[in-house]
Amino acid sequence: LPCLSLEVNVIVCSTALEANAKAARWTDSVLLLEAMHQSLLRPNAFSLSSAASACRSPGRWAEAIQLLQGARKQGVEANEVSCSAVLAACEFRDGWRAALELLSEQG
Length: 107
Fold this sequence. Notes:
With about 110 residues, this protein is mostly helical. About 70% of the residues lie in helices and about 0% in strands. The chain has helices at about 10-20, 25-40, 45-55, 60-75, 80-90, 95-105. The chain starts with 9 loop residues before the first helix and ends with a helix.
């Protein structure tokens, strides 16, 4: 097969983030979001929700919260899906306190 060249953009990165979420590869998701930021690609709400979903299965709720906070600092608007993904990551261990804080901020 000939080598296919692929332009890296937000859609391609978001698709990779979704694949990471399905495989619960939260570290890869965090690294990809950082690479997007360094490449001046602005993540969107879909990127954020996919990355936060990757944090859910291993119970990495603190990382999901950090992703949301980082996205807000970059001016990314979190929507219902991305907030739900972060809240779902908070269902494990002590994440419920962070979930309550997040809900009160959204209020």
